[in-house]
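idk why but the lab printer keeps eating my pages so im just putting this in chat instead. protein + adenosine-5'-diphosphate:
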Amino acid sequence: MAAAVDESQKWVLMVTAQTPTNIAVIKYWGKRDEKLILPVNDSISVTLDPGHLCTTTTVSVSPAFTHDRMWLNGQEISLAGGRFQTCLREIRSRACDVHDKEKGIKINKKDWDGLHVHIASFNNFPTAAGLASSAAGFACLVFALGKLMNVKEDQSQLSAIARQGSGSACRSLYGGFVKWIMGKDDKGTDSLAVQLADEKHWDELVIIIAVVSSRQKETSSTTGMRDTVETSLLLQHRAKEVVPKRILKMEEAIRNRDFTSFAQLTCTDSNQFHAVCLDTCPPIFYMNDTSHRIISLVEKWNCSEGTPQVAYTFDAGPNAVMIARDRKTATLLLQKLLYTFPPNSDADLNSFVLGDKSILKDAG
Ligand code: ADP
Ligand code: DP6
Ligand code: CO
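predcted complex ->
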């Protein structure tokens, strides 16, 4: 005999959000508290334009769901890791009444504890390859859950929750130039992101990303920075002596749209971050030969022009993020890259993404 259908179990409420990734120009590397994800220094990033490298996440709730589940790029993943649980718990504890009149659904604040969510997330760019998938991913997750559960917290409070999913994620809650303030409090309440300048500020900059390899990196950012904190003396010097001064200079460069200073600070900070990785025991190699060739190409060009035309920065992976001072320079840069790394040759780059409201161009 067929079981009677319980009409009260039939509804599903869904929210979809899209969040761009962000690329740090002054890097976060090293935690002073692993569990709360509190960093050893401030960091500054640029959030890419929406629709380029981004995560799309749909969160849904239904009384028919028996436990929380998540699919990443079409494959079910375990939510058992502390970070997902923390984000879910923090958002659930702030959930409010939800009343969807059209669908006739009413969820009271106190009902959320007994309801389960299903999460489906897609990255339109390589996952765990040094293009900040954890940043776009956790920012999008926290934002979407917050919308679903009618959480009233503002962006900066949401950023402190996203931070506990992945540190870099707190910066993706805002567009434009964003600073993650490391904070002083050991509970982490003041470790959050603030917007330094919105997306319209300095909009002549063009970001080009050269995907050198879309393979998953061998050392995750979390493991890499844990090893660095445990073994690198250079990190202590960087966090205490170098970054605090650099942060002030970077804020000034951004405020004044001073590309010379911006490019010098960006490149030198990327190089110091990779030096810190080399200073780790055992050493971590995130960049490869192609990454090094890209650095040389940009350095030689900048030197021959007398002033920087392009800044480069590499996260925890071999892929290059280049920031050109304007559109004309970006076109020249693409030409130089295509000349040096011809399509369908051994030195071929996987693809380019032009970060200024434009195209994904397959070079291969
Ligand atoms: P990346 O350089 O891409 O940020 P990380 O090592 O920092 O690499 O983080 C990769 C991890 O981030 C993945 O293993 C996964 O746990 C998490 N992640 C990636 N994409 C998403 C997503 N869309 N939603 C939630 N978590 C994600
Ligand atoms: C090199 O934020 O991915 O991209 O906090 O452990 O999740 P966890 O690490 P993650 O580290 C990012 C490191 C970086 C620099 C940066 O984004 O600032
Ligand atoms: Co990451």
